[in-house]
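Hello Y.,

Per our agreement to keep a running log of every chain we model this quarter, I'm adding this entry. I've kept the format consistent with earlier entries: sequence first, then predicted structure.
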Amino acid sequence: MMKRTIFFTSLLAMVLSSVCCGRFSSNPGSIDSRDTVKVPDKLSGEDSIAYIEDAIIKSPISADDLLGLSEVHSIEDFFCYYNNFSFAEKDPENADRYLATRLDSASMRLANRFLRMYQLVTKNGNANDKLQWAIAVNSVIDSFHLAEPSIAKDSILSEIVRVTSKFSSLTQTEMNYQSYLDARMAYYQTIEAYRKWLLDVAESLRTIAQEEYIAWHDLIEARFSFWRDVSNTQTWYSAKPMEINSYYENLLRNRLVELGVEHGIVLGNKEYNQIGTTVTKEKWEEWITKHSEPEDIEDLREMELENFIPDDSIVIARVSDLKRTFSRWIAARQAFAKALPKEQRTSYDNLTADIHSRLIDELPDAVSDEE
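Predicted structure for the entry above:
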């Protein structure tokens, strides 16, 4: 999997204020579980974090490792209004708008934990490691709920949205940050839905279901890299991160909805009728070719910003990845469909056809842009 250093490297430079030596326990299940990294007693602070990161980079990732790493906490002074005492003094009637409550601080701490684990598993992880990440996030959510029982578990991610919205002054940088966080929360929700699906599906289908999940994961990674490096290369455009994050979030939320439909087909014998047209391999490759150059390439030349035009080698690599992962996902879904009874197979194939149509923008999104 390609390494990604996306937009918010400031989170990797967080002020590391304290380290807890204890480890949270979790139940990784049977997927890539192993003993957690043991930090030597002589190491503390940033040295212990460096030790954990180095160990994880050299071996498979477990949920316990991610939780151990996230034992480093800090309240990041990222937003304009976050604990801004100067603003509060100047506007005493609205002082609460600028100052963090205990719940605000806990919610921001949760966001920091969530993103630090995500960044590590994305930097070095694969599809199975993402399942471990989902398990780790579940443990973090459980811990938050124990500390803040007034917040329902299914509302805890909304707490992150609430606190970041409260302290945002709506600068482009802050909106980029919020969109990044929104997209990564959608990623967690989709991965968690896949994890539950792999547990719910019949044991006879579990291996091919996991192969479909891995193929989907690799396709999504390739699609994101294609957007970032080829079809949306205007790095001079300040809202680019927000736009790409929005595309990414919608793609993930579409898959979340589609997984629910698949669950109904396979486990509930529900019928699904195809809505769009069937996308052939040639049609998919035609879509890729159409998007293999930035739409603003002439503008870049007029502004003498040719250095933002992607190198041919990058375009070739990203196009190759996209074609390869798409073909692998088609094969994985065909293998899964073949293992189903005839009636379920027809509905599953109908859904697959519509998923492909949605991937190349020939069907409306399964979810609204506003959701």
